[in-house]
Amino acid sequence: MSKQENTLAFYNNNAQSFVEQTINADMHQLYKPFLENIPNSSPNHQKILDLGCGSGRDSIYFGSLGFQVTAIDNSEVLIDIAKTNTLSYPKNQNNVDWHCATFENIVKQDWQKRFTAIWACASLLHVPYDELPILIEKLLYMLSDDGVFYASFKYGNSEHSKNGRFFCDMNEDRWQALKQKLSHSVHDNIWLTHDLRADRDEKWFNIIVKM
User: Fold this and answer.
1) How many Å apart are CA 51 and CA 155, to the nearest integer?
2) From first to last of its 211 residues, what are the pLDDT tens digits of the chain?
3) pTM of the full predicted structure?
């Protein structure tokens, strides 16, 4: 199997345990800078693309604020669990549109300037480094003129596999080199955080791009 197929198999086979590890993580320190960069207008007139929604934790939260959320994950098992999780928040159900799709499927959609914001929390880290510039470039075309893009990666300078999952790490030098390959003129902010899950001691590289 390919790297992507192995990674997908991991999530399908370990979906429930993955959800249990991530669903209750307190994400507010990451939500805050993301939401502060979204244009100041009514949330129900704005659309967020949650790229790699996993348990649905973030999509459900953004939906609770009134945003219209398109939540995408390549694992149909995770999407089914996320839909079930939404049932606990009946007021949010109509705000989240769930899709099972690959990154390749997403960038083929006619979604130019469709979203006010893209949230890619710990999802693009499964894409090989050499493929990231083209993928991010296509994602940026989906943003409105004043849109915001957030992504996070494990902090490091290599690519590796762990328990069947492929990871592409990111650091300051790798991001700077990647950014030079983008045709978009972007304003970016980067910072490090510690893993928000219990019993984890990892650093994460966070990126916000403002169009």
Assistant:
1) 19
2) 578 889 999 999 999 999 999 999 999 999 999 999 998 877 778 999 999 999 999 999 999 999 999 999 999 999 999 999 888 776 666 799 999 999 999 999 999 999 999 999 999 999 999 999 999 999 999 999 999 999 999 999 999 999 899 999 999 999 999 999 999 888 999 999 998 766 667 999 999 999 8
3) 0.94
The residue to which tokens 């994602």 are assigned: 139
The CATH number of the domain covering residues in 3-34+103-210? 3.40.50.150
Q: Any idea where the domains of the chain sit in the sequence?
A: 3-34+103-210
Show contacts of 109-112: CB within 8 Å, 24+ apart.
111/49, 111/142, 112/141, 112/142
